[in-house]
Design goal:
Elements lengths: L17 H10 L2 H18 L1 H14 L4 H51 L3 H4 L2 H17 L6 H19 L1 H48 L1 H6 L3 H53 L5 H42 L18 E3 L6 E4 L12 E3 L4 E3 L4 E6 L2 H11 L8 E2 L2 E2 L5 H7 E5 L7 E2 H6 L7 H10 L3 H6 L7 E2 L8 H15 L3 E5 L7 H14 L4 E5 L3 H4 L4 E6 L2 E6 L1 H7 L1 H8 L3 H7 L1
Parallel strand pairs: 5-12, 5-13, 8-11, 11-12
Antiparallel strand pairs: 1-2, 3-4, 3-6, 6-7, 9-10, 13-14
Subcellular location: Cell membrane
Pfam families: ABC_membrane (PF00664), ABC_tran (PF00005)
GO molecular function, one term: ATP hydrolysis activity
């Protein structure tokens, strides 16, 4: 029977802690886990059947010389071997399904979380941290699921062997009952040490991965300023530190692996020595000696699974802790009003630190409404094209974050605190389009179609025209069907910027905030975009953050932002006449250009 394909919706994970998260993965597939436990128990318990059959063959057939009885016991041994083989196959097959389900489910909830927090994530977690969670931690958490099958079977097999040995010799059974927990106690300190070492190693690995990503992203700039060798040496030094920590983790792992094999072996030798002494004194028969050896040798398997399961549980707990930390990241800086909602999204009573219960979202304005940013004093009028020229680019980016609700602010939308409105409503109606927004791999048609799911080619063509990007499509060998790699690196910077602008226009949001949409294009293309953008967004609210005179000249209203505050407002021509600072800004330090703008 083929495995049941899990539902595309992974469910809601339990993020109260790493062990709760692991238990949630178990609860998501209870019947499969139950089958795995049954197969694991039957397989491990069945391992003790063959020693019994062998002892009967020795005592009833071999020692008495009864060939017929011996043949019957040999046949029973063969049948038991076939049955154990089938149980082993089913156990392994079921546990593989359990692990893959857990891995897929964890990957799904992590991906859903990354999509949910969006632009908040880079401020809350390093890229290297996210990469290591997706690349390693999810797999290690899935490996823990092995405990649900062979782990349960190991405990049952241990008890069964103890009972069987008790029927042969209470002394031998007592040795097993005391010896196996002693083995676990010997290895337990190593497991705790491994957890500490693994936690430090995984943290440093995430930090180093993040640093490598930063270096690669800024490699061209580093080479330009002569800093490539400096950062390379720093990265090499951090790599050596990580190598040392890796050796530390490897040393603990090697001791655990050695103890997992050696300690059960020593235990087996001690029990066999004791049973051999008992055979010499006549306390047990030769067949029972063979059975005891078989039972104890069989017991090595569940003991190994218990130790290995503990090893996997420690590593999985460290990995689950990192996954839970990532899942606990909330868009809290786009939560509720600063004076009524804490960073955990729980309302507080004014003047008190006690929680007052969850804050209910406030309905968004019923139609187009003004956006107002109290921090800067800017008001973006509904249905108009507003431009902001900022003396400091960082102030422009901060303004876009506040008005796009990517950070906590006092911004209002139609008089309603923006952070009180449901996040889905904000994302559905307000779009912030950065000039360096990510472009996923796929055909150009797929890249653009993400903003227009209905695939209306007429609207796509209109958006490309407004962004002056028709020539980009014409230059590609297969037009819209031409494949683009990640970030569309095969296109020039200006071409990528126009594709991003076309994608933003194609989404047709109620409020569109554009951040330097023409910084990488030439003046002629910029003039066309300025004219077409105004027509494409006629009657809808648009905010353009730019210092381009061509775009500023097409705006209904321009605001000059100095030190994060609006210093002056008016049309582009008005500000050129009465605001020297604005004139210098848009002239971009060029004296001739400043004179021409006067």
């Amino acid at each position: 029977m083929p495995p049941r394909i899990p539902h595309p919706e992974p469910g809601t994970p339990d993020t109260r802690g790493p062990l709760w998260y692991l238990w949630w993965l178990v609860r998501c597939q209870p019947w499969r886990v139950l089958r795995g436990s049954l197969f694991g128990t039957a397989w491990m318990t069945g391992l003790s059947v063959r020693p019994y059959l062998i002892s009967r063959a020795v005592d009833d057939g071999l020692r008495t010389g009864d060939t017929r009885v011996l043949a019957l016991w040999v046949a029973a041994i063969v049948v038991a071997g076939v049955a154990l083989s089938w149980l082993g196959i089913m156990r392994h097959r079921t546990m593989t399904f359990i692990r893959e389900d857990a891995k897929t489910r964890s990957a799904a909830v992590v991906l859903r979380q990354l999509s949910r927090v969006g632009a908040v994530l880079p401020r809350r977690a390093a890229a290297g941290e996210v990469a290591t969670v997706g690349g390693t931690d999810i797999d290690r958490v899935a490996q823990v699921m092995t405990v649900t099958g062979p782990g349960v079977g190991a405990v049952v097999a241990y008890l069964v062997v103890a009972v069987v040995l008790w029927s042969i010799s209470p002394l031998l059974a007592l040795c097993v009952l005391v010896g196996v927990p002693s083995v676990v106690l010997v290895v337990a300190p190593l497991l705790r040490r491994l957890e500490r070492a693994e936690s430090v190693y995984r943290q440093q690995q995430g930090e180093l991965t993040a640093r490598s990503g930063d270096i690669v992203a800024g490699l061209r700039v580093l080479a330009g300023v002569g800093g490539r060798s400096l950062f390379a040496h720093r990265y090499a030094a951090r790599s050596r530190d990580l190598l040392v920590e890796g050796y530390r983790v490897g040393a603990v792992n090697s001791w655990i692996d050695a103890a997992t094999v050696a300690v059960p072996g020593l235990f087996l030798a001690a029990v066999v020595w004791l049973s051999a002494r008992m055979t010499v004194t006549g306390d047990i028969s030769v067949g029972e000696l063979v059975a005891v050896y078989g039972y104890v040798a069989t017991l090595v398997v569940p003991v190994w699974f218990l130790l290995e399961g503990g090893h996997q549980l420690i590593r999985g707990r460290v990995a689950a802790r990192r996954i839970v930390a990532l899942l606990a990241v909330t868009p809290d800086d786009v939560g509720g009003p600063r004076d009524t909602v804490t960073r955990t999204g729980v309302a507080t009573v004014p003047g008190s630190r006690q929680p007052a219960g969850p804050a209910a979202p406030v309905p968004a304005p019923g139609g187009p409404a003004d956006l107002h940013d109290r921090s800067s004093g800017l008001t973006v009028r509904a249905g108009r094209l507003t431009a902001v020229a900022a003396a400091d680019p960082a102030d422009a980016l901060a303004l876009a974050d506040r008005l796009g609700r990517y950070t906590v602010s006092d911004a209002t939308w139609g008089g309603v605190p923006l952070t009180s409105v449901g996040l889905e409503q904000v994302r559905g109606r307000i779009l912030v389009a950065d000039h360096d927004a990510y472009l996923f791999a796929g055909t150009l048609w797929e890249v653009l179609r993400g903003a227009r799911p209905d695939g209306d080619r007429g609207r796509i063509a209109a958006a490309l025209h407004a962004a002056s990007a028709e020539d980009v499509v014409d230059a590609l060998p297969r037009g819209l069907d031409s494949p683009l790699d990640t970030r569309a690196r095969s296109l020039s910077g200006g071409q990528r910027q126009r594709i991003r602008l076309a994608r933003a226009l194609l989404a047709e949001p109620e409020v569109l905030i554009l951040v330097e949409p023409t910084s990488a294009v030439d003046a002629h293309t910029e003039a066309r975009i300025a004219e077409r953008l105004r027509r494409a967004r006629a009657g809808r609210t648009t905010l353009v953050l730019t210092t381009s005179p061509l775009l500023l000249g097409r705006a209904d209203e321009v605001a000059h932002l100095v030190a994060g505050r609006v210093a002056a407002t008016g049309t582009h021509a008005d500000l050129l006449d009465r605001d020297p600072g604005y004139r210098r800004l848009v002239a971009r330090g060029d004296a001739d250009a400043e004179q021409a703008l006067r």
